[in-house]
Design a protein that fits this description.
heterodimer; A: alpha/beta; two-stranded antiparallel sheet; 12 helices; 10 strands; globular; B: globular
Chain lengths: ~325, ~400
Amino acid sequence: MSEVKNIKNLKEFSTSADRFEGANLLCPGCAHSIIVREVLNATNDDLILAASTGCLEVCTAVYPYTSWDASWIHIGFENSSTAVAGAETMYKALKKKGRLKQPDRNPKFISFAGDGASYDIGFQWISGCMERGHNMMHIVLDNEVYANTGGQRSSSTPIGSSATTAPAGKISYGEKRNKKDMMAIMAAHGIPYAAQVSPNKWKDMVKKIQHGMAVEGPVFINAVSPCTTEWKFDPKDTMNIADLATDSLVFPLYEIIDGRELNITYRPKNIVPVEEYLAAQGRFKHLFKDEYKYLIKEWQDRVDEKWAYLQRREEARI
Amino acid sequence: MAFDKMELREVEVWDGNYAAAHAMRQAQIDVVAAYPITPSTPIVESYAQFLADGYIEGEFVMVESEHAAMSGCIGAAAAGGRVATATSSQGLALMSETLYQASGMRLPIVLNLVNRALASPLNVNGDHSDMYMIRDSGWIQFDAFCPQESYDLNLIAFKVAEDHDIRLPAIVNQDGFMTSHTAQGVHTLSDDVAYGFVGEYKPMNDMLDFEHPVTHGVQTEEDWHFEHKARQHNDLMTKVMPKIKEVFADFEKLTGRKYNPVEKYDMDDADVCVVCMGSSVETAREVATEMRAKGVKAGVVGLRVVRPLPFFEIAEALKGVKAIAALDRSSPNGAAGMLFNEIAGALFNTDTKALLSGYVYGLGGRDLTKAHLVALYNELQANADAGKVTTQLQQFIGVRGPKLAFL
């Protein structure tokens, strides 16, 4: 069982970070660092961490410095999940053989990766880890774009978003495809726990991380990570954008237990129109031209449909 | 120990794969992460069976690709324990990205590389294309000529790689099918003696030491990258060969079996010789003996350690030779072969006046016959007599159709 950390308020929570230092090179307002701190602050357990190549990796372990005060490894773009799975396997082997230096410790194994490193290039590796049942957690820092390399589209990039390899132009509204549904795919592995989280709903996040750490087996967490640079908003607005994402239900917060039981964990009191979410970000600016306004309606319809689907799933307990 | 020891006969009839698997078992590896590929598959199958029968206490992870196999090995090695895997050909190509990462992170993983051709065309048989592809990846590379050596070199590889002064991953090469699937008598060590030789794994900078967290696999740009690469190269060039010789000597003391970075056969007064790797070394030795009976002073140089390249030992072995053939079992695709180039490099600043010619042979598992080698030795003798290379510098052995020769 994971040690459940007693957290009273946000101030105490936000100042208790000691395993991920504020000294890093991430952009001002980057949600990655907020999410990482929230995850690490959710537990007092020992942690073995991995990161895929991406913003988090290149900004936190630039030799001769490191922002990590927990064991951390980076191998490549695609394989942070498998790196942690390897470490977890070694832990099991050494435990069995009685060769652990601190045999009474009960570490948690976590890999972080962006959407490119999870939805695309690292997809196979994550699927392999989930299928094999490693006792680990894979967390996607989902900023819906290849931010580290300057804003190319990934299979998480939503329709109508302008990305450098799917730019809006005179005859194009940008990305043409809908965002890949990673939660559904990961849950289909039958893993004990999958959840979507958002940094603005930190209590919900802590609960889910703690739940994920308590279960035996692979856990998948998809965290929305608003990107000031590629989503094009003011660095002070990160949490406002996250609020809009969860309150418009563009990024609904829910969990799937054992690949079946779906629970919605946050129901906005006032559901915000999708238009407001889109309008707050430069990457969707062109959608407000007359010829593309139909896309905003399509966006709203799709979000409504998904919300209805999630509620039906929750109600039906299937 | 919780696992069962295995009673082995003094000599067992093993193929190269089974010999490697037994060495891995006796080393009591903590984690194997692997993905099957012909002709290396029986190594991990045997390992899984040993595990299923209670002869090993470690963990075996059957991953979803070779890239994941090495990724898992890297994570496991960084966590702090003994790690090994096996692969061939396309599998090695897929894991090649991670090979550089393993050596750059100084993780002592042992990889059994059962050499096989690279597609296209697809071919499952043995040649050295895969070995050549990753030769500069920073791994120590041994070359086994027969199943006995596959067994011995595996035990040796762990001991060299895991030394705290070295901390570099190591590959044990053997020829696909020719060695991996050919059973021969293999002299064995008892489980206790073998494990005693390899020794208990001593972790360094291990992620599972929670009192001393470590960061593995950092980012460096132009301000530090060169220093890291240069240091790694320096250690390979200066520390590894003495360590290998030391472990070879320890192994000889234990078993009576003597290994050298460069294996010389009838080289003391040789006029002509072939330099080669893998199973062809044994064939060449047999032909050299027959040539000697015909009055040709023939010798053979087998490369036992491919990386770091034993420059001085190669130069020493070839001192006084008049004509040399470098045999490359890989298509050079636009240049002279790797072995040709490396032998040339090792000899360049020496006093040798030897004539060097390159032969490409055995691609995709094509046999290298004794008749081929007889003809080759005769060509070398003609070169030696003429004092110049009498044929073209690069020739292909046994290809159907018009003769292929270049340079």
